[in-house]
């Protein structure tokens, strides 16, 4: 009987130098740096640089990255047209997936030999920075379009986080909100071989292009067992309503064997290393917006579920209510995850290209034994 590893649980398939997820110590390192230190001290642009280059940037390197990022922030007419083709009721993850696909089709147009589309490491780093720069405008336009509002042009006097909020809401965000948003972007950026990152590596392993790998990753991230959970957390909060309804709601949900969104993790089994940092950011927002009822519901559901099932929150649990307090529509949450994770995905794509092997596991056949069609007589050509 074959030793099947369903969902590749516990299977180590390759090395990576980008991040280390350690459930024993409940820790996460990006290129050796604890994520808590990065979230507390760095602008997201610096962490993006670290992801791609393996080191934190010097002042000049950060200034250069910022200049390039700011030069590519604006929504291009082609991308706006691609998004405008979709109904405003389309899921925002489908909008983002379509926009990235349109960018890829445009940027690789004219390449007739598929072997040339894969690009050099230098080309792919440039492509990565351009996607990193373009995604905030795509996500911001998606939310504004759904609200019947016009796109807001980027401002090159604001850093990445502040500009993202500016383009989404059309006003300068309070520094408290900018800081919480910047921290969330850093926490969401990278997490070793999660399903969407591994999808990107599988696509890359066939020597397909970076954009195709990112589109695949976006498709994987949309799922509620993965990135889609942060959106689903808000649906849970909306269902429960108030803190005093947690216990009866949980009775019913667990009786129906529902997965409670925002809890559990394939790798972390005693809590997600990123949660305390994001929870602190959420607490700051609860105080800033004077919304104690959000904290009460959050705390009640966490304590009730952990005490009953011994399953702990993952990053999506504090992120959902935090993004809600910042003013993002619930449907915008997972696109925010895309805007952050594009840095980890593209770092993995470049790493995979650097030491590639086609990713093609085996399967154990358990279908019908060989059999033949009644009366079929193979002709000489088929013998
Ligand atoms: C992310 O991989 C990554 O690193 C992902 C991520 C990243 O940064 O890229 O960290 C981001 O995707 C976080 C996870 C977001 N997803 C959710 O919050 C959805 C709810 N979570 C579950 O679906 C679940 O916890 C998974 C999918 C995340 C992990 O599940 P596993 O490892 O496949 O384990 P499992 O589903 O087999 O669960 C083991 C047991 C089961 O009970 P039994 O069937 O054995 O009785 O625990 C139960 C599960 O039913 N369980 C849950 C639960 N999570 C696990 N029961 C209810 N609610 C949950 N949330």
TrEMBL record:
InterPro entries named among the record's database cross-references: 2-MeCitrate/Citrate_synth_II, Citrate_synth-like_lrg_a-sub, Citrate_synth-like_sm_a-sub, Citrate_synthase, Citrate_synthase_AS, Citrate_synthase_bac-typ, Citrate_synthase_sf
Which keywords describe this protein according to UniProt?
Transferase, Tricarboxylic acid cycle
The family this protein is said to belong to? Belongs to the citrate synthase family.
Listed pathway(s): Carbohydrate metabolism; tricarboxylic acid cycle
- The species is Barrientosiimonas endolithica
What NCBIfam families does this protein map onto? Answer: cit_synth_II, PRK14033.1
The answer to whether keyword Transferase applies is: yes
Record-given protein name: Citrate synthase
Return the Pfam families for the record.
Citrate_synt
Record flagged with keyword Transferase: yes
Q: Which reaction does it catalyse?
A: oxaloacetate + acetyl-CoA + H2O = citrate + CoA + H(+)
The superkingdom listed in its UniProt entry is Bacteria
């Amino acid at each position: 009987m074959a030793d099947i590893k369903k969902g590749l649980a516990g299977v180590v398939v390759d090395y990576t130098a980008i991040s280390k997820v350690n459930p024993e110590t409940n820790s996460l390192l990006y290129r050796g740096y604890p994520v808590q230190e990065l979230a507390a001290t760095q602008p997201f642009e610096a962490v993006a640089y670290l992801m791609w280059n393996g080191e934190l940037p010097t002042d000049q390197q950060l200034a250069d990255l910022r200049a390039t990022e700011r030069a590519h922030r604006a929504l291009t007419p082609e991308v706006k047209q691609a998004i405008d083709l979709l109904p405003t009721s389309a899921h925002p993850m489908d909008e983002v997936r379509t926009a990235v696909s349109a960018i890829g089709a445009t940027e690789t147009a004219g390449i007739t030999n598929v072997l040339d589309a894969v690009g050099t490491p230098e080309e792919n780093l440039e492509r990565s920075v351009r996607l990193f720069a373009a995604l905030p405008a795509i996500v911001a336009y998606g939310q504004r379009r759904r609200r019947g509002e016009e796109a807001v042009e980027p401002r090159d006097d604001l850093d990445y986080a502040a500009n993202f909020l500016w383009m989404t809401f059309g006003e300068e965000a309070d520094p408290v909100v900018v800081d919480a948003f910047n921290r969330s972007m850093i926490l969401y950026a990278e997490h070793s071989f999660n399903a969407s990152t591994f999808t990107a590596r599988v696509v890359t392993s066939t020597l397909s292009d970076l954009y195709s790998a990112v589109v695949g990753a976006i498709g994987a991230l949309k799922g509620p067992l993965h990135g889609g959970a942060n959106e689903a957390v808000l649906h849970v909060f909306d269902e429960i309503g108030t803190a005093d309804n947690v216990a009866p709601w949980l009775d019913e949900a667990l009786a129906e064997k529902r997965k409670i969104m925002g809890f559990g993790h394939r790798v972390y089994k005693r809590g997600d290393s990123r949660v305390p940092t994001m929870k602190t950011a959420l607490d700051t927002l609860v105080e800033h917006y004077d919304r104690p009822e959000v904290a009460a519901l959050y705390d009640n559901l966490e304590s009730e579920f952990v005490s009953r099932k011994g399953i702990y929150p993952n990053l999506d649990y504090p992120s959902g209510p935090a993004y809600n307090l910042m003013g993002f529509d619930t449907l915008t949450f997972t696109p925010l995850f895309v805007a952050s994770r594009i840095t980890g995905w593209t770092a993995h794509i470049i790493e995979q290209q650097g030491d590639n092997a086609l990713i093609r596991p085996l399967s154990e056949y358990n279908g019908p034994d060989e059999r033949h069609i009644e009366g079929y007589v193979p002709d000489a050509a088929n013998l």
